[in-house]
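Entry 14. Ran structure prediction on the chain below.
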Amino acid sequence: MTEHAQGRTDDERNEFRVGGHEQELAPEEQLEQLASYIDAHYELPDFRPPWAGGAGDPDPADSYIARLPDRTTHAAMLMLGSAVDHSMPGVAYTRDVEVTDVPELGAQMFTPPDPTGAWAVSLHSGGWWRGSGDALEFSWRPEVAAAAALSGTIILDLDHPLAPEHDLDDMLASVRQAVGYAQHHNASRIAGWGYSSGAALATLAAAQFDALVLTFPDLDSVAKLPDQIRGSHVVPAPAEWPRTLVQLALQDEIAAHPEGLADAPAVTVREYVARHRLSTPEVARTRIRDIAEFLKG
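Output, structure tokens:
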């Protein structure tokens, strides 16, 4: 033992914990331990879009997001103990889901083994300018597959056009095409599910859906878009949404919690001990199970 370690008090020695202790940490403490490891070992890239001073290269941020599920599992095993289930939703729940490319939409379709007839269109995050490529393949779409498997919903995941090359009109046109595809295939009902900026896009297309799922929605990001990308579009008030599940991260460092939810009778709110991009695997699984239950109708 080093001289520095010998001079520590018991409280100081116990402040930084590695998994394996019998004492169970509260959810907030688990997230703190997990985040401390992730923050210390993996440099956070520049997530800013080019119109907000970012470098304009989405690859570093998308690479970070693509690796985050595996890094989360690894960090959870180290920090929270290996005798606990640390599987992410895409590992735990995706059995027997059929994945089909839909190239005319730039989408993939996730068909569960026992589809109910309900469909959903899912919209990835990425601050309007990224979220495609590896981030889509290794982070977002495994969660889409998990929600499809648990709910019996056919989910059409749309790799929608991105800014600044495209504007909101282009993105909404792609959503309309995806909804039309589901209607053509006799969907009994169609939900829109988006994460972060994808959730904001879902609200802009709310009139096209029978229900919405908004995961950690960054609705303020619409107003922050340059005029030439945003056009005249504004996020409708929650009272105008269809039946909606809003998932909120209690430690969200990116997105403000939407206003007006309490005045919207069709809105159900669920809160999670999570950051915008990070939670324990257990919380991630709970979040996907909640989405699946909502999609069942």
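The CA atoms of residues 118 and 187 lie 6 Å apart. Will compare against last week's run tomorrow.
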